[in-house]
Design a protein that fits this description.
220 residues; Rossmann fold; 11% strand; five-stranded parallel sheet; 2 domains
């Protein structure tokens, strides 16, 4: 089944080019031109990802995101802001609960790579390993707290160490997200890229929050 993406924008040119790029990459695309329409389609269609422009008629993308993340039916759908401005975008993404952001205009290849990355937030739990998941989740949640503390004092050695450990544990548990993020953390720490590490930690934390929910569902 194709991943379903809800594109929320009121500019025809943006809608046309983004829809073209997404469909060319193999995604199914739904379009909403207002915040109200976006909220309605999010509930009825339950897309795998929502691309949300900030400057919308009727209500801003910030308000739309806040409502989506507050509703039981849509709170776990990844929401990615699209904006032509970089001003406060990172802070507002965190404030309103978005899973990330993309700056317009964007290079096609990089854009699709971002989409693929955000879709990986969807998690699966291997039934054969389900008995080991509580300890795995507990350990990684502890690592996230350690990463946050390390960021506060620019302890890149600690970030690099945790990233290295995650590469191995991700491979062992066959959870590719953990392997990839571990490698990314290790590389970013080696080069002292604070903002990249911060973005990685935010995405990782969201992933494990969803993993906790997914694991609980398998135990019902």
């Amino acid at each position: 089944m194709l991943n379903k993406i809800l594109l929320v924008d009121d500019e025809a040119d943006i809608i046309n080019i983004v829809t073209f790029r997404l469909q060319k990459a193999g995604y199914s695309v739904l379009v909403a031109g207002t915040g109200i329409e976006a909220l309605e389609k999010a509930v009825t269609e339950l897309p795998d990802l929502i691309l949300l422009d900030i400057n919308l008629p009727q209500m801003t993308g910030y308000e739309v995101c806040s409502r989506l993340k507050s509703a039981e039916e849509t709170k776990n759908i990844p929401v990615v802001f699209m904006s032509a401005s970089t001003e406060n975008i990172r802070e507002n993404a965190m404030k309103y609960g978005a899973d990330g952001f993309i700056i317009k205009p964007f290079e096609p290849g990089a854009f699709i790579s971002k989409i693929e990355e955000y879709l990986k937030i969807t998690v699966e739990v291997d039934e054969e390993l389900s008995g080991l998941m509580p300890k795995f989740i507990q350990d990684k949640t502890g690592n996230i707290a350690e990463l946050k503390k390390a960021l506060e004092i620019n302890d890149f050695a600690m970030v690099q160490h945790i990233g290295h450990v995650w590469k191995g544990s991700g491979s062992t548990y066959q959870i590719h997200f953990v392997t990839e993020k571990g490698a990314a953390l290790e590389n970013a720490a080696k080069n002292g890229r604070v903002e990249e590490i911060r973005d990685l930690v935010t995405g990782i934390e969201k992933y494990f929050n969803k993993l906790k929910i997914k694991y609980k569902e398998t135990q019902k």
